[in-house]
Amino acid sequence: MNVIVRKLHSKGRMLFKDEPERQAKFAGKLKVAENRLHKLGRVVITAQLIDTIDATATTVAELYDVVLLWADARQMRLRGFEEDTNGVQYAQTWEIEFT
Fold it and tell me: How many angstroms separate the CA atoms of 71 and 47, rounded?
């Protein structure tokens, strides 16, 4: 499904709580699936935002241990953990709008 994702946290801290319109938006296809991740040593539910601009599919952002917080007709919110380039995991929430 084509979506626009807005990340609500940066390194575990809330971004622009009083001004959510200032948060960066990312467009792409949303894929939520159960995956076995060897680096974690277990099966987890992951959410991936995949870039759809060119022919090669590139993962823009990924959440681990995803939980659906709420869903409505054109929006939903997912919570999970994202990993930075150093392997540190931070809490993250995605606000998702279907396009």
Answer: 15
pLDDT in tens, 41-85: 899 999 999 997 777 788 889 999 999 999 999 999 999 999 988
Q: Scanning the structure block, which residue is given the tokens 């540190």?
A: 88
Name all domains of the chain by residue range, CATH numbers in brackets.
2-98 (2.30.29)
Tell me, what DSSP letter sits at residue 72? Answer: -
What pTM value is reported for the model? 0.87
Structure tokens at 37: 């991740």
Q: Are 90 and 82 in contact (CB under 8 A)?
A: yes
Cα dihedral across residues 85, 87, 17, 51: positive or negative = positive
Question: How far apart are the C-alpha atoms of 20 and 36, rounded to whole Å?
Answer: 34
